[in-house]
Amino acid sequence: MPYYWCEFCNRDFTTENGLRNHTSAKHPYCDDCYEQFSTTSEYNDHCNIYHSEEEEDSEEEEDSEEEEWPSCSFCGRAFNSDRGVQQHVAAVHACSYCNALVRDVRRHEVEEHLTCVDCQRTFGRPNDLGKHRASGVHSARNVVCPFCHVRFRLPSAVAQHLENGKCPCKPNMTRQDVKDFFRDQERRHNLEGAVLVPRITDGRSAGSAVPQRATAASWNGFAYACCVCNRGFQGLSQLNAHLITHESRDWRCFRCRRTYNLLSALVQHWEQSACGSHANPATKLVGRQRMLGYPAHG
């Protein structure tokens, strides 16, 4: 009768299947190393030393494959369900104007619908949106009056604050005082004509013939009359606003050479046009013309 012998424990078996079952149960074989062990404990020790990390990696890969969650195709964010993805896309990636699905909704609304991202106001032309953004309506109040230290959003607001005599520390400052101050600064720095059109008479600034502020004496019995054109107004504030139109256009842009009758108008021009896109006019009102290569005098 044939018999089969186990080379590890010298045990005999009458059938080949009996030997095979005995070997797989008592003397395991490592398929990775092609090595067979005499005992199960030796096999376990071998696996713990040489194959434990591989088993952990394979388990992690299996777990990661099993835990694939639905994700957003725009930003890659994962969710527990497809419904969560749909709700996320509708809330974050859908344009509120055309319902288009895009990765960056804010950029899409600005470029395609000319929308202000801060107030959601839309505009008909890109230039109008640019002026709205440059107006400072959404800016912080970081510009400070040098006299009373009140904070404003834009440099032009500070200029208006001074020109209108609203500064409590300089209540009597007029538009002519502002011009005289800048002319003095230009002369001090040898930059005459850098911002103001030169109007020098006998070494002094030529004063404006237009009154800086109208008074009750402008009343002619029917209206407050302009002393320059005799146009009548029902209120002093209206007349004072009108007097500005008669001011000489002494404020000049150092880039485009356009002139204005108010400092605030010139600064607004810088704030809202390409002439001031590369500089901060609030800090360089004097001297910019020469820096850019323009002659000192007009």
TrEMBL record:
<feature type="domain" description="C2H2-type">
    <location>
        <begin position="70"/>
        <end position="94"/>
    </location>
</feature>
<dbReference type="GO" id="GO:0000977">
    <property type="term" value="F:RNA polymerase II transcription regulatory region sequence-specific DNA binding"/>
</dbReference>
<keyword id="KW-0862">Zinc</keyword>
<protein>
    <recommendedName>
        <fullName>C2H2-type domain-containing protein</fullName>
    </recommendedName>
</protein>
<dbReference type="InterPro" id="IPR036236">
    <property type="entry name" value="Znf_C2H2_sf"/>
</dbReference>
<keyword id="KW-0677">Repeat</keyword>
<dbReference type="GO" id="GO:0005634">
    <property type="term" value="C:nucleus"/>
</dbReference>
<feature type="domain" description="C2H2-type">
    <location>
        <begin position="114"/>
        <end position="143"/>
    </location>
</feature>
<feature type="domain" description="C2H2-type">
    <location>
        <begin position="224"/>
        <end position="251"/>
    </location>
</feature>
<dbReference type="InterPro" id="IPR013087">
    <property type="entry name" value="Znf_C2H2_type"/>
</dbReference>
<dbReference type="Pfam" id="PF12874">
    <property type="entry name" value="zf-met"/>
</dbReference>
<keyword id="KW-0863">Zinc-finger</keyword>
<feature type="domain" description="C2H2-type">
    <location>
        <begin position="4"/>
        <end position="27"/>
    </location>
</feature>
<dbReference type="GO" id="GO:0000981">
    <property type="term" value="F:DNA-binding transcription factor activity, RNA polymerase II-specific"/>
</dbReference>
<keyword id="KW-0479">Metal-binding</keyword>
<dbReference type="GO" id="GO:0008270">
    <property type="term" value="F:zinc ion binding"/>
</dbReference>
<feature type="domain" description="C2H2-type">
    <location>
        <begin position="28"/>
        <end position="56"/>
    </location>
</feature>
